[in-house]
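User: I'm writing a tutorial on reading structure tokens. Could you give me a worked example: one chain, its sequence, then its tokens, then a sentence or two explaining what the tokens reveal?
Assistant: Sure. Here is the example chain.
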Amino acid sequence: MKKRVLALALSATMALSLTACGGGTSTSSNPPADGSTAPEGGGTQKIGISMPTQSLERWNRDGSYLDQQFKDAGYETILTYSDNDTNRQVNDIQNMIAEDVDLLVVAAIDGEALNTVMNEAGEAGIPIIDYDRLIMNDNVSYYVSFDNYTVGTLQGQYVVDTLDLDNAAGPFNMEFTAGDPADNNAGYFFQGAVDVLQPYIDSGKLNVVSGQTDFDTVATDKWDTQTALERAQNVLASYYADGTQVDVWLCSNDSTALGVTQAIQSDYAGSNQPIITGQDGDEANLKNIVDSLQSMTVYKAVANEAVVTLDLGKAILNGDTIDESLISASGWEFDCSFDTESYSTSDGHNCPSFLLVPDVVTKDNMMEKLVDTGYYTQDADGYLHPAA
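And here are its predicted structure tokens:
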């Protein structure tokens, strides 16, 4: 019940937050709910929140949830969106450093392009929470994300189960569309799926007709829908124009799945509807799932990710010892693990990580997973919309 109430409370404030940050930067603070004038730790502390873009639906949700969580706890916030421009994100973070923020929460556009500004933050003594996308810099204090490798394994296992690959004769034809090479998470998503599916590819039960199985070939710059669409159209024209059937198209997220779905609708000569995977629970993709155009999405409850980030931020600013005990002390009613081995920001340096567990959403369970939890509402036509 606590999880449901949290989701409803956060979603109710989301529309206002999106309006406030629509220009790219928002600075604001709210008094703590308990009536005090300062957050835990004393003094009016300032949180800098740097999000990559507003062009993808999920980052609007993340930024809004984070901003609201910290404001409700009594902190002053600076929220920026950098329009997928790395130079702009560097400038945004430098401005936050100049504003003497006490804590940085950064979701990177390019996890390897923020070294200079991360070093500047480190020199200024500002702790950094690396949010969702891994930043390759040792000044990062902690990493909060979902288990990115598991996202891929969930997609791959969905394909195995839906095609009944352990029993069906096959072969089945498939293609891959991966994510942005600049996003370190994209490799984890892709590799998780490949590790599940590789035995079936090796045995010939899955046949990648195009032969395009390496990450660099199937990657999609900036997770862009149009880029995914155009590549899918090229693959269909080159390898499936004669009516060869594609049974599954594994897409690492919803924005790329949207492009592939459009290509299937407009350029596919086959008569079947392929399995198409995704990730994020974007509104347009949930509609496609209802309409049986997309098969599944891996949903990450970003409201819960914001809760972890807030509690971690409080602990950092309070000078608390941070380890797995934070999980039990915070009383989170969702699955989260403390990991000190899986995510390395350099050779020999593993970033302590809090990893939440994602969930598979399909047409059959979206009411239970998304509507009953308060994250989305359902209209008269059966389509889902973010709760507001």
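What the tokens reveal: The chain has two domains: 2-146+300-357, 148-279. The longest helix spans residues 184-203.
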